[in-house]
Amino acid sequence: MTEPSASGDPQGPSKNALKKAAKEKEKAEKKAAAKARELAERQKKEADDANDVSADCYGELPMVGSPEFKPSNLPRVNLADIVELADKEIVFRCWVENARVQSAKLAFLNLRQGLNTIQAVVAASEKLSKQMVKFAGNISTESTLVVHGLVKKTQEAVKSATIKDYEIHITKLFIEAKAEVPLPMQIEDAERPLPSEGLGNEDEKAAGDEGRPLVGLNTRLNNRTLDLRAKINHCIFVIKSGVCELFQEFLRGKGFVMIQTPKLQGAASEGGSNVFEVKYFDRPAFLAQSPQWYKQMLVASRFPRVMEIGPVFRAENSNTARHLTEFTGLDLEMEFQENYHEVMGLLEDLMLFIFKELNVRYKKETELVRSAYHVEDFKLPESGKVPRIPFVEGIKMLREAGEELGDYDDLTTPQEKHLGRLVLEKYGSDFYVLDQFPLAIRPFYTMPSPANPLLSNSYDMFMRGQEILSGAQRIHDAELLRKAIRNYDPPLDPDSPAFKDYVDGFRFGCPPHGGGGFGLERIVQFWLGLPNIRMCSLFPRDPQRIMP
Amino acid sequence: MTEPSASGDPQGPSKNALKKAAKEKEKAEKKAAAKARELAERQKKEADDANDVSADCYGELPMVGSPEFKPSNLPRVNLADIVELADKEIVFRCWVENARVQSAKLAFLNLRQGLNTIQAVVAASEKLSKQMVKFAGNISTESTLVVHGLVKKTQEAVKSATIKDYEIHITKLFIEAKAEVPLPMQIEDAERPLPSEGLGNEDEKAAGDEGRPLVGLNTRLNNRTLDLRAKINHCIFVIKSGVCELFQEFLRGKGFVMIQTPKLQGAASEGGSNVFEVKYFDRPAFLAQSPQWYKQMLVASRFPRVMEIGPVFRAENSNTARHLTEFTGLDLEMEFQENYHEVMGLLEDLMLFIFKELNVRYKKETELVRSAYHVEDFKLPESGKVPRIPFVEGIKMLREAGEELGDYDDLTTPQEKHLGRLVLEKYGSDFYVLDQFPLAIRPFYTMPSPANPLLSNSYDMFMRGQEILSGAQRIHDAELLRKAIRNYDPPLDPDSPAFKDYVDGFRFGCPPHGGGGFGLERIVQFWLGLPNIRMCSLFPRDPQRIMP
């Protein structure tokens, strides 16, 4: 039996079939022509290759880890050490910021490694083929390379690179990991500052300083792996890492123990609003809004000084430039002897230490970011004494400056910023403390003020007029705590499972204590004067964004 | 109109009413007698108080922070400095381990501060009243005190205290925070070791070494704030803090940057099993099982070396002595040049540094815990070279020792422990690496081995025969990664939203890299040789426990 043709028509050639045959003929002719062309090209290439004195000196490396890859075991250098490497043959890994063919005999590359960039020259010679020059000049931007070359002093300073006095005369050059083309965004666009707070789509349309389209925050965050390659972003996160380091260094020196408290909690703490719910096997659980209760329970367990660096989760539907649903808390809690100002003093010293050391250890990174955003230096009082302003005094300053507000009102964000400007004028400091907040606007576990029952032994810390820390003396007496829970607005039940373990923690001789919680991203944001907190989170989370 | 009586009978006194009247009379007489007794007692007390030469030297302090409290501003000392304090009048905060009245004129207290305990004597004299002796000897265990006293060398060593050569002759003594009686558990019971793994209720019933009832793990964890006061627990968590410190110290010295990756994720990673689901506003989100993908994306963002300390969440219904649903990951990821053994070498050096420094900086704490649990020292190879055992070699060792298993089988926990004993015998090391695991039992992003496609460039690290780290070279090429995702068992879709951002991260020139993730609690558990991982988590989380 004859099989039916694929066209489904067993009767003989139709119009369609004739058309098809003609098409196929055309195709076959084209194919033959292409083959001939290909052959000619291959022959030319083979001839070129035969002449290619550099054949072993460039190309794509087999993948590291694959069977074809043979390690060279050559030591790799760091371009930060360039001065010591002058006139030496070096090997290093880098990536391509920019590659261009200048002529058949000359290509230039801008190579980057960390925060350093250097110019590299690929010049045809007896030992270096034109094919290699062509290959080098056409490498796609962002590809990772292994470069062999000679470090030479330049005749005149290279404008386009951070290393101005040296360049690389390339002898070998291999692509280790090729970047696809086109890139979804250009790294150089990510280097330029965001307009205003970077929220809203209109930013995408606005034109930048140099007439280039601005890449808005959303595009950047959607392509975060590329966006983070920008030098400015490297600096931000190196500084963030530095703040963690300095926080621990200072506190460890003062006897603080690093703790890890649970982020999964059986009951929603602090009244239950703004808490994310988790499916925990067959029951609900909740994500910790802060390590507050646990760090206090540890003080009750006779850990006199504890610190924690960990994620903090807030199910707040706030779409502002200074809120995240997940951020990093720098928390501490400590016994004090007789006055909660012992805690406040330690917190002030901690921040002064961090500021001072950021200026020493992370000066370069700080300056790079601030100069891109035209941000002024962070001012600290010449006396070294942090302004401690009683809340009522802050209210008075604001009233004198024309704000209308009551003695026990909470400050709005614009009022906080206004107060920040007033404090800067009066005390010459971008960092200060507001002390003795009204009791009614603080959490129930806050110790009331001995001087005025409407106030409390609590404080906030501010940088450039924005809050970075909230802290207080906590109630360390179980009976007083129960009363505070019952008298809360709305009233709560101290015997409910949500409170029981917490309250019980204070029944067996807990010493007086206090502490505070910093927002790490805010410290970085306000240190650098950045417009949006999302810039200080590697992969920020807000009500709209949970990817990547 | 006459109001009806409360009994509801308006007709006159009934039998019940007569009974009631008789009762009330009796009550009134009792009340009068009690009043008379009270009066007599008060008069006696007033007389005593009038005679009480120590009236201002003891009692309950008003609450620190309350209006009645007046700070003394006296400097407080640390009992760790006792040698320098000999023959001095000192003031210090401490708590009561034990108080007892020896006679009307003499009371003894065991006082604790940190890991130190000291004996204190309250002896009646012309300057110190019998009332004060009585007060001191009756203070409830675990109350927090402020003690004034003279440091005196003892005639003979005090057996019951850690400070043996000095005692305190108390001059003043105030209760700062009184502990309620009775305590739900005794701290000294928490000092004694758990039997076996501490799981199961039968432990509660078993009798301890000295015939005391054993306080089981569940009771301890239910009263964790008290349980944690035990010295042994202080040591465990001071060591845990120390491991965090040493981890960062070593890696920072090698150029690692501390990162914080998001714990809230928009898609369930790594296939989606064992992931906790979160209600994220109007959609589902998931808790990070590991920072794996993010730390790799950061290497792709040109952060050459990153580290993270953060919570890791596993929705695994495992009720064993070595699983938690929330634990602390010590993670790192780094570029390497040509061979993933560069990463393995760094991980080995990191652990050797941690072990060495734990032995130096946390010797006292380590010894205290190990001696309570009769645990042997942690052995390291004298050569300083960590045993690196290829997986196939491990299989061979186990087979020779009688285990039955195939070349590419995963090891069971008992087999791992068995191998640990064999390695200890052969190499004299409690720490070792298994290298080149079968590809099929590793995550899809693991780089296959160039030598054998059934193996992979991956490794685990072990302490005392139990896994503490899993790590590998990762696939850094987007195409190979897509293929690995498609070929996974079960097959997955690399273009699904769960994978897209991750895979895209490798499209633009990511260098070869590898890393690993340690379980912090396991390092502490196996360093100390403890039977249950819950002992190394301040507030452990398992399928049964999410409180306190």
Automatic annotation (TrEMBL), chains A, B:
Entry similarity comment: Belongs to the class-II aminoacyl-tRNA synthetase family. Type 2 subfamily.
GO biological process, one term: aspartyl-tRNA aminoacylation
Alphabetical UniProt keywords: Aminoacyl-tRNA synthetase, ATP-binding, Cytoplasm, Ligase, Nucleotide-binding, Protein biosynthesis
Gene3D superfamilies: Bira Bifunctional Protein, Domain 2, Nucleic acid-binding proteins
Main subcellular location: cytoplasm
Record GO cellular component, one term: aminoacyl-tRNA synthetase multienzyme complex
Protein origin, superkingdom: Eukaryota
Region Disordered, residue ranges: 1-51, 191-211
Catalytic reaction annotation: tRNA(Asp) + L-aspartate + ATP = L-aspartyl-tRNA(Asp) + AMP + diphosphate
Enzyme class: ligase
Biased segments, Basic and acidic residues type: 21-48, 202-211
Pfam families per the UniProt record, alphabetical: tRNA-synt_2 (PF00152), tRNA_anti-codon (PF01336)
UniProt-recorded name of the protein: Probable aspartate--tRNA ligase, cytoplasmic
Any one GO molecular function term: aspartate-tRNA ligase activity
UniProt-annotated location(s): Cytoplasm
Domain Aminoacyl-transfer RNA synthetases class-II family profile, first and last residues per copy: 237-548
Enzyme Commission identifier(s): 6.1.1.12
